[in-house]
């Protein structure tokens, strides 16, 4: 017969203490001594180069400072900027027409556009400038009329095209060839399926061009166009052979009289560096503008935003 002790519940088993948490594994970056050695060598070489430039008396930094803001130099800089803006603006306007012709289904328009681009991209810019400057020797008169027939209007080319106009014409025709290829590449970068979807929705051609093609094509056009702008700025220096008073020709006039070749060339070099830097900063922000919506994570912070965040972090610390 069972006793009361037999029906009592069994004592609960004692709980074991929980195991101690495992120590977190530390992630240690891989040591790369080769990179640090290469960085140290690069910094050493850069410091040596900067020191040699600053301490070399042949640069005559005093003369550079005196002529950096001289009136003749600033006038040459203004003409250089004007030539750059005029030739690039006209080049992209005409380049848009050529790109449209190149993408046309008309074989005549495609052929004319291809031949134009082939000729102007295949010949040196200096040769083109000299050719247009001496156009009077090849065509003493230019006429408007019926081909192989009578002419209704004729103009003598002697002294018709001066050095500055020659520079504008020559550089514009050259930039037109490059701009046409840049624009054509940007248009071709747009996904064809988006155009088909827009057509299926019944959107008009102008709206498709303005809202779909142009915003996406600009992401491919702007970087190359920025390089073209900087290249056009530096390319204007070749007009000095035509005695056009650009930045380079202005400093050449000074050192031909004073024989201070190195400091005057440094004046031109520093101005080119300043203007190119400003254009590069502008290109960076234009690229950010057209890159909006390209990624889901948003745009990375700008250098100014990073500097502001770092300064706030230092102040709070």
TrEMBL record:
<dbReference type="InterPro" id="IPR010065">
    <property type="entry name" value="AA_ABC_transptr_permease_3TM"/>
</dbReference>
<feature type="transmembrane region" description="Helical">
    <location>
        <begin position="228"/>
        <end position="249"/>
    </location>
</feature>
<feature type="region of interest" description="Disordered">
    <location>
        <begin position="1"/>
        <end position="22"/>
    </location>
</feature>
<feature type="transmembrane region" description="Helical">
    <location>
        <begin position="36"/>
        <end position="54"/>
    </location>
</feature>
<dbReference type="GO" id="GO:0022857">
    <property type="term" value="F:transmembrane transporter activity"/>
</dbReference>
<dbReference type="InterPro" id="IPR043429">
    <property type="entry name" value="ArtM/GltK/GlnP/TcyL/YhdX-like"/>
</dbReference>
<keyword id="KW-1133">Transmembrane helix</keyword>
<feature type="transmembrane region" description="Helical">
    <location>
        <begin position="115"/>
        <end position="140"/>
    </location>
</feature>
<dbReference type="InterPro" id="IPR035906">
    <property type="entry name" value="MetI-like_sf"/>
</dbReference>
<comment type="similarity">
    <text>Belongs to the binding-protein-dependent transport system permease family.</text>
</comment>
<keyword id="KW-0472">Membrane</keyword>
<keyword id="KW-0813">Transport</keyword>
<dbReference type="InterPro" id="IPR000515">
    <property type="entry name" value="MetI-like"/>
</dbReference>
<feature type="domain" description="ABC transmembrane type-1">
    <location>
        <begin position="77"/>
        <end position="283"/>
    </location>
</feature>
<protein>
    <submittedName>
        <fullName>ABC transporter permease</fullName>
    </submittedName>
</protein>
<keyword id="KW-0029">Amino-acid transport</keyword>
<feature type="transmembrane region" description="Helical">
    <location>
        <begin position="261"/>
        <end position="286"/>
    </location>
</feature>
<keyword id="KW-0812">Transmembrane</keyword>
<dbReference type="GO" id="GO:0006865">
    <property type="term" value="P:amino acid transport"/>
</dbReference>
<feature type="compositionally biased region" description="Pro residues">
    <location>
        <begin position="10"/>
        <end position="22"/>
    </location>
</feature>
<dbReference type="GO" id="GO:0043190">
    <property type="term" value="C:ATP-binding cassette (ABC) transporter complex"/>
</dbReference>
<feature type="transmembrane region" description="Helical">
    <location>
        <begin position="160"/>
        <end position="180"/>
    </location>
</feature>
<feature type="transmembrane region" description="Helical">
    <location>
        <begin position="81"/>
        <end position="103"/>
    </location>
</feature>
<dbReference type="Pfam" id="PF00528">
    <property type="entry name" value="BPD_transp_1"/>
</dbReference>
<keyword id="KW-1003">Cell membrane</keyword>
